[in-house]
Amino acid sequence: MSLDPADLTYDTTGLTESQLQSLEQIFKGTYKAKYPIVGYTSRRVLNEDGSPNTEFKPEDQPSFTIKDEF
């Protein structure tokens, strides 16, 4: 795992199926298990101009269940 700023990205384009499965296992088994909902990145909740994205609904997000909030 690299913490080099050039390696830290949300873009998973170009990853192999094996790499994507590994990320999913780490996310669900490690991070999601320990920290169910931490928050959302500004990329999801804000528009390009910085204004709130009124279309954003946490319940519509992948891997989200209401019980994770409590």
From TrEMBL:
Residues 46-70 are annotated as: Disordered. The gene is LOC107559903. This is Neudesin-like. It comes from Sinocyclocheilus grahami. The lineage of its organism: Eukaryota, Metazoa, Chordata, Craniata, Vertebrata. Residues 56-70 have a biased composition (Basic and acidic residues).
